[in-house]
Amino acid sequence: MKTLIIISHPDIAGSHSQQFLLEGITRQKNITVHHLETLYPDGKINIEEERLLVEQHQRIIFQFPLYWYSSPAMLKHWQDEVLEEDLFDRWKGKDFGLVVLAGIHEREFRAGGRERVTMDELMRPFQTVANKFGWHYLPVLSIHQFNYQTEEERKALLVRYQQLLTLPNESLNERTDWFVRHLRKLSEEKTDSVQKQRLAHLVDLLLANQEEIEDLKTTLDELD
Amino acid sequence: MKTLIIISHPDIAGSHSQQFLLEGITRQKNITVHHLETLYPDGKINIEEERLLVEQHQRIIFQFPLYWYSSPAMLKHWQDEVLEEDLFDRWKGKDFGLVVLAGIHEREFRAGGRERVTMDELMRPFQTVANKFGWHYLPVLSIHQFNYQTEEERKALLVRYQQLLTLPNESLNERTDWFVRHLRKLSEEKTDSVQKQRLAHLVDLLLANQEEIEDLKTTLDELD
């Protein structure tokens, strides 16, 4: 599966959070990073190239800082220029996700919080675009006050980010394979033998579960 | 009360609905019409002038066609450039309204409709901006499939538009005065004597009600 990350940020080089996320996914050949302000400093979008790019990817991610409770204007401009009703049929069935970076604490985005609305509510226009195109809308990854996050929180964030970008959302088998692959990679990076053992154990568990589920499926098929 | 209508539309001269609305409010000295694409064809907004304009008006209206379930990018650009946290205190207490023109039928904007969401939900980012600034958020005036509307529907639309632009939302007295003023103006324009009589009767009723409410208030004050 190929993933396209469309980023809108007026100063991506100066953004710690954006750089942190991008460093976490370097050298992954199935991920294309596409920063609009770098490509189009004058705001003139190459519509045909953008459409080709969307066509070549199965999962489309919009990544942006929250500006006045939505994306920066540049990403809206991209939508206004690139999206078109004629493409509904051709583009249906894609996955669509949002990575939203906010300077305000998560607890404010709820009834009774200072912002009064949830991030899911604020992102409704994007969800409705996904609905219109027949895209599978992935849960929003909203990152709050990145600069105050601990090392541990940031590690956990990278895992969630990686999942949003590449974890298949369809079959359980594919999802298990994804986890096995990532746990094995993690195990290779570790030097501590206890940690290595724990990760190997996790992989064994996942594979055993996968086998068990396969057996159950065969049984169900025979009952059918 | 002075009202500022900030319009974003890439081709306002070619839009029947926009022209219809604007023709309905010509020569009203307390309404300022401000079309962004005419003023800033290159997208470079004069931030200081825009802030001054907002400052000079009590009611701010955003008027735009629905593009991908939000405003055109230009209006978002205006927000990104002009709005600023430092202005929260200075600008608080304004009225804020939206006039949204949509090509899709109203019945699709609800649970179970094709769009699945209501217009109120889609406009949540604007409502949250209003909340942040301490503005009074007026009910959204959403206009659906203007080109299919009958003459009668369009007349009713102009009344709702005029109310959104100029009807005070605070005191009942001010609201009554507004209606009396508008009914009298309407009566002057009519030639049919039956219609004139009916309108005069309505004005009498409103004024009588107003007096009665005043009396009740006095009674309440005496009981206090």
UniProtKB/TrEMBL annotation, chains A, B:
GO terms for molecular function: electron transfer activity; FMN binding; NAD(P)H dehydrogenase (quinone) activity. The keyword Heme does not apply. Residues 1-164 form the Flavodoxin-like fold domain. It holds the Pfam family Flavodoxin_2. It comes from the Bacteria. Keywords: Oxidoreductase. This is Flavodoxin-like fold domain-containing protein.
